[in-house]
Amino acid sequence: MIPYMDLNEQVDADFTRARRRARLRAVVARIRRHRASNKLLSFDDLRREHVANNRLHRGRRIVEVDEIVGSVGRWWDFDRSFLPTKASVGQRWKRIDRAFHRAQDLPPVELYKLEEAYFVVDGHHRVSVARYHDVPTVEAAVVEFHPQLPASPAPITSKNEEKTMMERGKSVSGQCAHFTQSR
Fold first, then answer.
1. Where exactly are the structural domains of the chain?
2. In the 3-class helix/strand/coil scheme, how is the chain assigned residue by residue?
3. What's the CATH code, domain 7-146?
4. How confident is the model over 114-173, as pLDDT tens digits?
């Protein structure tokens, strides 16, 4: 960190450096023809892919910043390293960075967890500033999503076993039908 006379100068320089790093990462990804590798993962896309609709509130946790790999709805504003890709996020980013330099307490971020990955619901700028300053962990309110389990395979039966089961099923259902008719 370069010492500046004024905190505002420091915050402006931090944002400029973060944007420069994001642009450099984008250029490198384009040269390597791996554009998708520099984008944040979209929670909605992965949730549909994994059919994960069951949620469980886990409460507040301490989460490793490196385990946060995506976003719920704002994946285009930040790159894979959570560096800001757009100048439009500058005011909010600088406000969070200023609070970081002043050592102010910030509210916990809200995260969704899918398998071993975390996705930001609220707190994109807080995660971005934490990553920029190499903060190892953040406090988070976590909601975990569980993928739908695959259906268990039916046991394999032989034709004779299947025929016997069908006959028993008919006789049982026939007895039940007879039983209800006689009442």
1. 7-146
2. CCCCCCHHHHHHHHHHHHHHHHHHHHHHHHHCCCHHHHECEEHHHHHHHHCCCEEEEEEEEEEEHHHEEEECCCCCCEECCCCECCHHHHHHHHHHHHHHHCCCCCCCEEEEEECCEEEEEECHHHHHHHHHCCCCEEEEEEEEEECCCCCCCCCCCCHHHHHHHHHHHHHHHHHHHHHHHHC
3. 3.90.1530.10
4. 888 999 999 999 999 999 999 999 999 999 988 876 544 545 555 555 555 455 554 433
